[in-house]
């Protein structure tokens, strides 16, 4: 594919799409009910971040949040960390999932490598959730208890989460492809009372038994009192070796009136515990509130994903990534949520596009790496499959290069809204995202999210426009962590976000905000390439390397030599059948010199079998950099946090060779 310039206009919504957008309905509502008039998105965003209390109160009213008690303050105090939202209110997340739903309408569509596509009605989802809620009550689960889930992205997992949240208990999940110690490092910190587990799963056509792993995990969880086993790999699995085990069928086959009862909790009480990647130590247990997630996800999914009752919302994810939580919240909008468990590339990369056709998907959420992989394989899904219903593609996980945007328009669909988004586990949402009323420019995220006072800061702490700087939030945001688990004085949380610019959330990404209000992410700010005082993000290097067809993947690090200079080795994975030759080396360097700058060309290029990545697919730039700088691998990376830990050995050996030199 030919190179396209960042900022090239690729698509604009027509008048009909703008008129039907939920954002337009909200603007009309503000005009009618609050006498507030906004000419465009920019003016609406500006009001939303400067009048925080007024903006978030309109979210409460617009979405008709149900509260057992009224709130007495919207935001107090207005500082970070320590902000409290809607104090006095008592709500329940699950209650908002089920209110006003049409029983016979499809709530969930799910499929996997083990299961055929199945549609589940709202009526069945409600019945199963009510039955499981009764089981959890019978097992002694109460408000504040922790429920751990070692489950894949399947229907039962959503039922388990909704039943847990309905009781005011605290949910925490880990994907079955996580290593044993990685799961222990997560669950042991929160001391769960009950654990859901599967027996195994299938990925890429291969079966993976997880019964012994589940037993090992439970040995490290002394607070565990009950297990609910989900037969997934085999229908007749024996779970009796696990702690006081019941099967899923036993748990959901409950006598009772079939009605859900909602435990109303404080707006600022915990909903779930998510975890940082844990690459350099035990994962940080990040706690989000019921109310903060409810309000933020309603806003983000309604206005920035434009979801409604007629949508079918999909995101390829596992239960160990915050996008699973975001996907489940699609139910808040009345949309049908689509789940898939298995490899996105089995039997080949066409599989998800075929799935989009079969499910009549309207919103296709995936990773930037999947899109660039399809691009490199020269797929043409728009010509191969009927994607008539598809209206939007969402992308996250890493920056989507401009060519990825262009590929979607040329090979998926011409009339397509591409909503590339960026946020993180820390806030369990995106704060730079899409808007259906705005144009799409190549390589750019359409807008800063409503209510998110996002800035690009210089090292001196001043905001920048059209310059790359630190991504910061300068005002409180409702889905920020209420605390880290077992961090009573907040020290760990403070040093994670607030010690760079006191009172300002520093996210750790490199961001440029353009004059037109769009954003461009250039990767992690601590992984930038600095040559002669000129910094660029690693994503810019990867974009250039991606233009070389023979290269499958890459990783670059900047290694200072202590004398004011540095080396920048580039490590690449070749496509099957391709060999790293001098000609390809020259081609890689030429692309980087032309598309980035001559000074950012790598000092050396090495072929590797694989690039080390976290369980969520993030490249291990910083740990690899530290290893190559001579730090012991066991101190800079937690092997349990890696998807492919064997790939790290190359870099350990490489560091030894560097030391000898």
TrEMBL record:
<dbReference type="InterPro" id="IPR000873">
    <property type="entry name" value="AMP-dep_synth/lig_dom"/>
</dbReference>
<dbReference type="InterPro" id="IPR005914">
    <property type="entry name" value="Acac_CoA_synth"/>
</dbReference>
<comment type="similarity">
    <text>Belongs to the ATP-dependent AMP-binding enzyme family.</text>
</comment>
<feature type="domain" description="AMP-dependent synthetase/ligase">
    <location>
        <begin position="101"/>
        <end position="476"/>
    </location>
</feature>
<protein>
    <submittedName>
        <fullName>Acetoacetate--CoA ligase</fullName>
        <ecNumber>6.2.1.16</ecNumber>
    </submittedName>
</protein>
<keyword id="KW-0547">Nucleotide-binding</keyword>
<dbReference type="Pfam" id="PF13193">
    <property type="entry name" value="AMP-binding_C"/>
</dbReference>
<feature type="domain" description="Acetyl-coenzyme A synthetase N-terminal">
    <location>
        <begin position="41"/>
        <end position="96"/>
    </location>
</feature>
<dbReference type="InterPro" id="IPR032387">
    <property type="entry name" value="ACAS_N"/>
</dbReference>
<dbReference type="InterPro" id="IPR045851">
    <property type="entry name" value="AMP-bd_C_sf"/>
</dbReference>
<dbReference type="Pfam" id="PF16177">
    <property type="entry name" value="ACAS_N"/>
</dbReference>
<keyword id="KW-0436">Ligase</keyword>
<keyword id="KW-0067">ATP-binding</keyword>
<feature type="domain" description="AMP-binding enzyme C-terminal">
    <location>
        <begin position="545"/>
        <end position="618"/>
    </location>
</feature>
<dbReference type="Pfam" id="PF00501">
    <property type="entry name" value="AMP-binding"/>
</dbReference>
<dbReference type="GO" id="GO:0030729">
    <property type="term" value="F:acetoacetate-CoA ligase activity"/>
</dbReference>
<dbReference type="InterPro" id="IPR042099">
    <property type="entry name" value="ANL_N_sf"/>
</dbReference>
<dbReference type="InterPro" id="IPR020845">
    <property type="entry name" value="AMP-binding_CS"/>
</dbReference>
<dbReference type="InterPro" id="IPR025110">
    <property type="entry name" value="AMP-bd_C"/>
</dbReference>
């Amino acid at each position: 594919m030919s190179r396209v310039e960042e900022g090239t206009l690729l698509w604009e919504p027509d008048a009909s799409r703008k008129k039907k957008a939920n954002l337009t309905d909200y603007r009309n509502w503000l005009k009618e009910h609050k006498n507030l008039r906004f000419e465009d998105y920019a003016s609406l965003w500006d009001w939303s971040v400067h009048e925080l209390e007024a903006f978030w109160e309109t979210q409460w009213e617009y979405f008709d949040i149900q509260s057992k008690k009224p709130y007495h303050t919207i935001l107090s105090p207005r500082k970070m960390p320590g902000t409290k939202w809607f104090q006095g209110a008592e709500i329940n997340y699950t209650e908002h999932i089920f209110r006003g739903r049409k029983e016979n309408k499809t709530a969930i569509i799910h499929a996997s490598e083990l299961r055929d596509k199945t549609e589940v009605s709202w009526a069945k989802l409600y019945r199963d959730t009510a039955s499981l809620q009764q089981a959890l009550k019978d097992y002694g689960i109460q408000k504040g208890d922790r429920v751990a889930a070692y489950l894949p992205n399947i229907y039962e997992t959503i039922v388990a989460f909704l039943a847990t949240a309905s009781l005011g208990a605290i949910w925490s999940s880990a994907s079955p492809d996580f290593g044993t110690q990685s799961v222990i490092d997560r669950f042991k910190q929160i001391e769960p009372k009950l654990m859901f587990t599967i027996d195994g799963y299938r990925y890429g056509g291969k079966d993976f038994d997880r019964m012994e792993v589940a037993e090992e995990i439970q040995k490290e969880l002394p607070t565990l009192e009950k297990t609910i086993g989900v037969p997934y790999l085999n229908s007749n699995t024996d779970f009796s070796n696990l702690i006081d085990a019941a099967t899923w069928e036993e748990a959901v086959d409950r006598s009772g009136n079939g009605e859900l009862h909602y435990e109303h909790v404080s707006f600022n009480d915990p909903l779930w515990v998510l975890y940082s990647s844990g690459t350099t130590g035990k994962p940080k247990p990040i706690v989000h509130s019921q109310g903060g997630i409810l309000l933020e996800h309603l806003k983000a999914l309604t206005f920035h994903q434009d979801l409604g009752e007629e949508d079918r919302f999909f995101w390829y994810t596992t239960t160990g990534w915050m996008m699973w939580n975001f996907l489940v919240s699609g139910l808040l909008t009345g949309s049908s949520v689509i789940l898939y468990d298995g490899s996105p590339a089995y039997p080949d990369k066409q599989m998800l596009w075929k799935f989009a056709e079969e499910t009549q998907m309207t919103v296709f959420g995936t990773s930037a790496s999947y899109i660039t992989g399809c691009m490199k394989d020269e797929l043409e899904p728009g010509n191969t499959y009927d994607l008539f219903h598809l209206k939007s593609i969402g992308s996250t996980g890493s920056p989507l290069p401009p060519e990825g945007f262009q590929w979607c328009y040329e090979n998926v669909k011409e009339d397509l809204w591409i909503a590339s988004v960026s946020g993180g586990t820390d806030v369990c949402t995106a704060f730079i995202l899409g808007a259906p009323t705005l144009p799409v420019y190549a390589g750019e995220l359409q807008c800063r999210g409503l209510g998110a006072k996002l800035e690009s800061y210089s090292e001196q702490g001043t905001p920048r426009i059209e310059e790359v700087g630190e991504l910061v939030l300068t005002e409180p945001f409702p889905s920020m962590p209420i605390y880290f688990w077992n961090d009573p004085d907040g020290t760990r949380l403070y040093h994670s976000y607030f010690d760079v610019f006191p009172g300002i959330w520093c996210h750790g990404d490199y961001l440029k905000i353009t004059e037109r209000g769009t954003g461009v992410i250039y990767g992690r700010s601590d992984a930038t390439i600095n040559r002669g005082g000129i910094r660029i993000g690693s994503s810019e290097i990867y974009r250039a390397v991606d233009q070389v067809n023979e290269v499958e993947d890459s990783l670059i690090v900047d290694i200072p030599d202590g004398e004011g200079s540095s080396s920048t080795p580039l490590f690449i994975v070749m496509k099957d059948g391709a060999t790293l030759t001098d000609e390809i080396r020259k081609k890689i360097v030429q692309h980087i010199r032309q598309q980035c700058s001559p000074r950012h060309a790598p000092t050396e290029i090495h072929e590797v079998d694989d690039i080390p990545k976290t369980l969520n697919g993030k490249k291990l730039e910083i740990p690899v950099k530290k290893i190559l700088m001579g730090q012991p691998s066991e101190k800079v990376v937690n092997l349990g946090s890696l998807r492919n830990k064997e790939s790290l050995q190359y870099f350990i050996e490489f560091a030894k060779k560097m030391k000898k030199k």
